[in-house]
User: What shape does this take?
Amino acid sequence: MPRLLAIGDIHGCTPALDAVLAAAEPRPEDTVVALGDYVDRGPDSKGTIERLIDLASRCRLVPLLGNHDRIVLDLASGGDAAFGDWLRFGGDATLASYDRASPREFPAAHLDFLRRCRMFHETEHHFFVHASYIKELPLAEQPEEVLLWDSLRYRLPGQHCSGKKAVVGHTSQKNGEILDLGYAVCIDTWVYGDGWLTMMDVDTGQLWQADQEGAMRCDPS
Ligand SMILES: [Mn+2]
Assistant: This one.
């Protein structure tokens, strides 16, 4: 059976990504939805995007755009994102990983990867967004501000009108545990801090979790 797998916010923690991929072993028929925020904060944004480009050749990868990825794209295209604010919110680590002074100088293949990221993904029983959603609106009509930026700490979205279960990241769960609201599950478990990178089989609930150094969590349950 093809699996439907989701990966939470990676934030440049490449050893954690390597570890969960080695454990879950995505196969060509599996779909892997990456929930965005590949860059910033952790030490190896460049390596994380390299791994994801490689992963896309080994399974069906559906990468979503995160708010941090959005800022990198804006800066790369001369948009009006605030460079100083970005540096303070983890962009400094991204520049260091590329050894470049601006996202304008990042490899074209990496920027193309970010440009191809989607705002949402939908399957028969689930939908996937980076941050949050407005329950009354169809996915194609959601404001980008909500999809990329809204925090579950300030507003719980409620059951979406489609009846499907949401799989989201963005709101880092500082206790390292996924947040399961029933109608939605948040799998950003704070790998760039003291937590884990979480990969989940959304149909079975099986979890694979690794820390920044790539050590697997022994008993995720
Ligand atoms: Mn985010």
Observations:
- Residues 9, 37, 66-68, 130-131, 170 surround manganese (II) ion (CB under 6 Å).
- Residues 4-210 form a domain with the Purple Acid Phosphatase; chain A, domain 2 fold (CATH 3.60.21.10).
- The CA atoms of residues 124 and 164 lie 8 Å apart.
- The longest helix spans residues 83-98.
